[in-house]
């Protein structure tokens, strides 16, 4: 039933957005069980001849959730900032980073899609999704700790699941200072959506990474997993991800009473050695309920075109996040999670850190 809800919501949004494809995953955050996984368009096994052998990311014959690799953009920011928190690089949520202008590094220019043109603290970096501030944090962190985290999350391997056809992540060939910066916000490194779903499970469940599985696990069968984030960092990330949905780019995923937390990511697709500005892959990676996370829900759109309802906008906030909201509203009761508008994650200590313009309440 959860699979049916995921497929129908993804398909409806794919049609509404005139997108090339869509995909999604619902994963148990504490066991690694895959509750639902969809890759659209689907193929008819009776008509295999009508599907040309195009590259995997464009063929319906591939399960894009485990076989296609994408640069997943800003969905990586909570992971890299989590690593910086664990390594003692980010010691205070109030610490600010210079995002007044684009960052020039070795002939490259790192800029923000919605520049704030001011110094940003950590919650603002995530709420406004600043590439510049994230790159500065990663630069302070350094290459080795970031690589270590990404390897712990299996980004340099095939995703862990019992399917035979799985694609290995695309790891940067050479890893210099600029790579550390861009990889921290999901560019220059490509993984499958399942890699990301498993990483988010670890980010919110107290910090333990477990392999994904298609099996229904008995309580005694749940793998012990291994620690990749400290429990304190995971608790802080639950607040920050909730804040992104309550106050930031993830507002359109805010399913009432379900305490959704998550992060948007809109990445240009690489094409012939450069990025194609007209073709986006948009992703929303989320978990709920954030006060005690049970499930990770990930939705992505391949080349959404935007429509009247989204004011022609194609980013994840308008194309992928609303799918997550609708899937959670439909699937949560089936999974035994009932809405409760009297409970939420306490973000009161972080809220004052968000700068408000004069006159804004």
Secondary structure topology:
Elements: H1 2-16, E1 21-28, E2 34-40, H2 64-67, H3 77-86, E3 96-99, E4 103-105, E5 108-110, E6 118-121, H4 122-127, H5 131-141, H6 143-152, H7 177-184, H8 193-204, E7 208-209, E8 226-227, H9 231-247, E9 261-271, E10 274-288, E11 295-302, H10 316-319, H11 321-331
Structure description:
- The structure is a single chain.
- With 361 residues, this protein is α+β, with helices and mostly antiparallel strands.
- The protein contains eleven helices and eleven strands.
- The chain has helices at residues 2-16, 64-67, 77-86, 122-127, 131-141, 143-152, 177-184, 193-204, 231-247, 316-319, 321-331, and strands spanning 21-28, 34-40, 96-99, 103-105, 108-110, 118-121, 208-209, 226-227, 261-271, 274-288, 295-302.
- The strands form four sheets. A five-stranded antiparallel sheet has the order 2-1-11-10-9, with helices on both faces. Strands 3-6 form a two-stranded antiparallel ribbon.
- Residues 357-361 have low confidence and may be disordered.
Note the gap between the termini: 41 Å
Q: Report the sheet with the most strands, covering strand number, pairing sense and barrel closure.
A: 5 strands, antiparallel
- Coarse morphology: globular
The order of strands across the largest sheet is: 2-1-11-10-9
How many extended strands? 11
Q: By helix and strand content, what is the structural category?
A: alpha+beta
pLDDT < 50 runs, ≥5 residues:
357-361
The chain-level mean pLDDT equals 91
Which percent range fits the helix content?
A: 25-40%
- SSE string, helix = H, strand = E? HEEHHEEEEHHHHHEEHEEEHH
What portion of residues belong to β-strands? 15-25%
Radius of gyration: 19 Å
Tally of helical segments: 11
